[in-house]
Design brief:
With about 190 residues, the protein is α/β, with parallel strands linked by helices. It is about 40% helix and about 20% strand.
């Protein structure tokens, strides 16, 4: 099976990485497909199995870990696991496509270590922590406590930025989208 490229986008919550990834997915010439993560948590709202996540039981998730089926995984909260199944990457590569990830910093760096030459790891950097807090508040999807927890985590995540291949500064979303497009286009050649 011919291997495509792996495009990892990581950032603190509210940095704009999901918007950038969705933009890149809409550009046909890049030949991208989104990597769907597996999780042991229950589906929320209108999330769909096989579209938003692969929802699997905690027991199944732990068995996949034991069997070495994950490219990367993490226990985000107690008994709440997220990870990328190797079979997901193989499924996308079998279609002749490149894989794009919208993934946390730790998972993104694990993928880069596993596939150093096939992976472009991009860190999306917000203008500042203050701007990040404003963006998270504007979203109105989380409590003040949850926002403060994300801001505290963001400080730690920002310190990992130099470990990524490239940093996109998202001061202006249109510029950041264009920067991401040019980086990906050049990398996939």
């Amino acid at each position: 099976m011919e291997q495509g490229k792996l495009l990892v986008f990581s950032a603190p919550s509210g940095s704009g990485k999901t918007t950038i990834v969705k933009h890149l997915l809409s550009i046909e010439e890049l030949n991208l497909e989104f990597s769907i993560s597996a999780t042991s948590r229950e589906a929320r709202g209108d999330e769909e199995h096989g579209k938003d996540y692969y929802f699997i039981s905690l027991e199944e998730f732990k068995q996949h870990i034991k069997d070495g089926d994950f490219l990367e995984w993490e226990e985000v909260y107690r008994d709440n696991f997220y990870g990328t199944l190797k079979s997901e990457i193989e499924r996308i590569w079998a279609k002749g496509k490149n894989v794009i990830f919208d993934i946390d910093v730790a998972g993104g760096l694990r993928i880069k270590r596993r596939y150093p030459t096939e992976t472009l790891a991009v860190f999306v950097k917000p203008p500042s922590i203050d701007e990040l807090k404003i963006r998270l508040k504007i979203r109105s999807t989380e409590s003040e406590d949850k926002i403060n927890m994300r801001i505290a985590k963001a400080s730690v995540e920002l310190a990992t930025a130099p470990q990524f291949d490239m940093i996109i500064k998202n001061y202006d979303l249109d510029v950041a989208k264009q920067d991401a497009y040019l980086l990906v286009k050049e990398f996939i050649g």
